[in-house]
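Hi P.,

Sorry for the delay on this. The queue was packed all week, but I finally got your sequence through. Input first:
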Amino acid sequence: MTITTGAPAGSALGTRDDHADAIGTAIRAAAAYYGSGDSPLDDASFDLLVSLIQAYEDRYPQQIAPATPTGEVAHTAAMLSPANAFGPQDLLDWEASVVRRLGAPVRGGFVVEPKLDGASLAARYRNGRLVQLVTRDNGTSGADVSHAIGTIVGLPERLASDVSFEVRGEALLTTAQFARANEIRAAHGAGAFSNARNGAAGTLRAKGRPYTVEMTFWAFGAVELDGPERTDGPAVLPGSTHAEVMAFVAAAGVQTAAATLAGLTVVATVAEVQEHVDRIAALRARLPFGIDGVVVKLDSLAEQAAAGTGSRHPHGATAHKLTVPGRFLSAFHPSAASMPSP
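Then the structure:
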């Protein structure tokens, strides 16, 4: 079947063969677009084709094919979020659990960085070109939101070199972007976003709006694009620590958490971790975006791997939640225990 830009809005797929042909056309077009960048279909034609496939599958759900472009995108590797900690004792307990799993003290140190309050996103670069954006969703697969490419500060469409990797981080609305987004929405007769986090999540998934809402991205991790078992050559991501990988990502042109006022800090002990948790908590009100905690993780990639993962959380990381804006609720601040939550 042939789909052109001028295909009528009422077009429909009538048979199983039409459906299969349409899927094949969409797969070939996507492969060309994400590969050479020269697709036989322009954006409008591709979107129309996918909408026809979706309409057919809505009518005949028993005929949905595994390769359909309307489905979720599998993550390169599980995209997990760290378990929560709420005070110094939780942090000490987490360290003890890591030591048990490693069978030895932590030798590679700890990374401390802000837990940005946005929408988690995986961004895939192939030969230096941003080719796909995928939401975290259930951690094993997510929605393809590649239509947002070009609208997110910190995620350039082209890198400084022709490298291929997947970077992971948070897409969010800064304070200024949140205000501007609601001005734009009001001008188009749309309701205001209730908060920046929901605004970012909704904006990532929105297609076909007559306006654009700009967001910002900060990376908190990266993985090999083709997985750890790649056989086509050496690994792209250099270094043996999280900090080294993030430095490589930043040098390639992607914005990382190290670029925030809170920064990315490597320390040797949990006592030093606590000092930086308190430091970041004190900065909270001055940051130009929302944070809801501080992430602490093992810096050594080998120790991260040895600590392993659970079904929902990596064992080598924890998220220190901030329950009182601008301050860390902990035993190190006894007066905070009587303060009401917001």
